[in-house]
């Protein structure tokens, strides 16, 4: 990363489709791990919360060396047999740091870096350029390889693009104003995410015991988010969407985090409480009137998020 400035990724706001298609381009919303890539003599990848995740993705190393050096933004994804991105398939790779295991996983669960923005080339920052111009410059770099690509911009009617994404079983789309600058570390409506399904990050604050086939394990996880004052508030429990492997992994990670009292205001007699250090992602249907998630389903841990980032967005 020598000589290249460090940039925090720009974030999209949840919202509705724009009412003026001529001012917007559309992209697929990929279901993966956000990563800013720094390609110079070597490649460095930093997650959304600034962690160096380069070692976990050796199949991307050949993006470097690069002359001139550059900084790009994108999403690391894996694909299922139907050609859709699979967040579940990423789970075993997100926290793995043992070199031999990483190499084996790179063969059995290969990743692709979907590069959608160009932030810097040589000694020139591009943040102030309009989105469309940055994209044109990115496309001129011709970054096509076995494990990286520049996905197409989707022009035309946002309604049609969103409908097509739903038909294909995709998570949704990102709407980007063609004149928008890149705003590092900021969440802006200049980038609007429109989803076919609802999902959100949650902080794990405890678990309830399982029964039947889950006896002696986790029955459900207890979830929380930060309110507008910064206080953690309980938003219910999630008991579906787990695999045996994910339950075993959660059990091992939660044991050392046990605490005698809850980190939230909640009375759940059979709960085991934990320090609010792990972030997960769930899908759900809606918020209830008493501030709970209705019909949540577990999607996986988010090692690229920190608990302090998890707030209740009223639009989510």
UniProtKB/TrEMBL annotation:
It is an enzyme of class 6 (ligase). GO terms for biological process: DNA recombination; DNA repair. It comes from the Bacteria. Keywords: Ligase. It catalyses: ATP + (deoxyribonucleotide)n-3'-hydroxyl + 5'-phospho-(deoxyribonucleotide)m = (deoxyribonucleotide)n+m + AMP + diphosphate. Its EC number is 6.5.1.1. The keyword Ligase applies. InterPro entries: ATP-dep_DNA_ligase, DNA_ligase_ATP-dep_C, DNA_ligase_ATP-dep_cent, LigD_ligase_dom, NA-bd_OB-fold. GO terms for molecular function: ATP binding; DNA ligase (ATP) activity. Residues 104-227 form the ATP-dependent DNA ligase family profile domain. Belongs to the ATP-dependent DNA ligase family. This is DNA ligase (ATP). The lineage of its organism: Bacteria, Bacillati, Actinomycetota, Actinomycetes, Mycobacteriales.
């Amino acid at each position: 990363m020598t000589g290249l400035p460090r940039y925090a990724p720009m974030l999209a706001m949840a919202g509705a489709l724009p009412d003026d298609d001529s001012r917007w381009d559309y992209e697929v919303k990929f279901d993966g791990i956000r990563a800013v890539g720094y390609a110079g003599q070597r490649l460095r990848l930093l997650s959304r919360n600034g962690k160096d995740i380069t070692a976990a993705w050796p199949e991307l190393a050949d993006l470097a060396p690069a002359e001139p050096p550059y900084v790009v933004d994108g999403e690391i994804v894996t694909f299922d047999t139907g050609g859709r991105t699979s967040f579940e398939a990423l789970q075993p790779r997100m926290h793995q740091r043992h070199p031999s295991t990483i190499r084996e996983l790179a063969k059995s669960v290969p990743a692709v870096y979907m590069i959608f923005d160009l932030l810097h080339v040589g000694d020139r920052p591009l943040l102030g350029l309009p989105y469309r111009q940055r994209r044109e410059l990115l496309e001129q770099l011709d970054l096509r390889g076995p494990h990286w690509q520049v996905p197409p911009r989707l022009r035309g009617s946002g309604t049609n693009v969103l409908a097509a994404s739903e038909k294909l079983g995709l998570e949704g789309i990102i709407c980007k104003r063609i004149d928008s600058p890149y705003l590092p570390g900021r969440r802006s409506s200049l980038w609007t995410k429109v989803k076919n399904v609802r999902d959100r990050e949650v902080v794990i604050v405890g678990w309830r015991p399982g029964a039947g086939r889950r006896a002696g394990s986790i029955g459900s996880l207890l979830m929380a988010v930060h309110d507008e004052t910064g206080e953690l508030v309980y938003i219910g429990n999630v008991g579906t969407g787990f695999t045996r492997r994910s339950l075993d992994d959660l059990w091992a990670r939660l044991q050392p985090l046990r605490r005698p009292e809850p980190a939230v205001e909640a009375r759940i007699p059979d709960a085991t409480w934990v320090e609010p250090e792990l972030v997960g992602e769930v899908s759900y249907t809606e918020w209830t009137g008493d501030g709970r998630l209705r019909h949540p389903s577990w999607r996986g841990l988010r090692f690229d998020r920190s608990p302090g980032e998890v707030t209740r967005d009223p639009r989510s």
